[in-house]
Every structure is written in structure tokens, then in C-alpha cells.
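yo

u said u wanted the structure for the complex thing, so here. seqs first:
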Amino acid sequence: QVQLQESGPGLVKPSETLSLTCTVSGGSISSYYWSWSRQPPGRGLEWIGHISYNGSTNYNPSLKSRVTVSADTSKNQFSLKLSSVTAADTAVYYCARGRLATAAFGRKYFYMDVWGKGTTVTVSS
Amino acid sequence: SYELTQPPSVSVSPGQTASITCSGDKLGDKYACWYQQKPGQSPVLVIYQDRKRPSGIPERFSGSNSGNTATLTISGTQAMDEADYYCQAWDSTTVVFGGGTKLTVL
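structre next:
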């Protein structure tokens, strides 16, 4: 079965760029959508963005100016870069597999059915 | 931007039915899904496309969506169902999460 594993630095300095990688095993990233979400301590989930099987990207409007999601199909990995971080970006970061489907009358729906275990990133000097 | 609103907390007695709501403008015209998250764990999909259960999710989990409200219903709630629950919808090109509901089984 498909498994996802996040990796990257656990500590990032303010104003620097947070970089994380998600390695996918048991399946190819050439299908589906590949998403990043995060969860600040004691708070709820926040979607960051995703990359589709064809390389198109979508981002949370509130983070769009600072976020880049990219993929490396040769390594079966996808990555997150979040620039100009502050303490507010301290969170557990999750990668997940997403599915976008179309139902009756052209209505689309999206859900994430496989998640990584998450990695904690702290922004601090 | 589109917003989804959930009650912060819901309590239920073991064996009873728990209902968790998720409200959004004309949410019934979209599809909702639900995730369960236990402390220290990753979210788990429990309902997608309003009412479908992924493989391995118990039948006591069900969903509905109409008007401005989607509802996750847990019948015969068990102690193991105590967790945070998040609704999620697709809005044009973006993913939106609700704020989450803490379900307490007591």
C-alpha cells in the first residue's frame, strides 16, 4: 500500500525558507494529487497547497505568496518550500495523497486518503 | 474565501449517537468529507463524497449534506471514537478545512 514520509529540518530560523520533502513508496506520484497541510500546536488543520499528477499547482490564498510545491518524479518525491517564515509557521507539517473526482452535474470533490505521520517544524532563532 | 464552521466540542455517552455539524454557504452544493484525528496521530479519512466510507471504516460512521450543513453521525459511539473531527470541502481550486470538533465520549 502507498506510504508517505515527510523529511526535513526540524528547526528553521525566522525569515529563512522552510523546506520539506515527502517520499512516496508503494505507488507513483504520476497519478493523483499530492498535498501539504499543517497543524500549529493545539490548533486545527490548515491546507497549504498541492501539486497534481500533471504538474499543476494550487495554493491556499493566505499562503500563496510564500509557498512553492514541486515534484521530482524520478525520485517519487514532492516538496514544500515556505519562505520568510515566522514563529506563526511553527507546526506539524503533513503530506498526503489527494483525489479529485467529478460526480453528477460536473460537481467536483476532493479528499485526502493517505497521510504521512507528520514532521514537527519549529521556527526559532 | 470559503469558510467551514464546526462546533468546538461535542459530548456523547457510550452507545449513544453523536452528531457533528459543519456549516458553510451552500455547502450542500459541494461535497464534504470528514477526518478523524486522535492525539499525536495523523488524520484518517472516515467519510468522503458526503456519505461514502473508505475501506476499513466501521459502519457506525455515516454522513449527510444538505442546504448549508454537512453532518457526521456516529451511531453506537465507542470510547475509541473519542478524537478530533474535521470536515473538508473543495472550493473551486482550493481545499478548505473546518476548525475541528473535539468529540468526548463520557
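Chain B touches chain A through 26 residues (CB under 8 Å). Residues 88 and 97 of chain B are 4 Å apart (CA to CA).
cya
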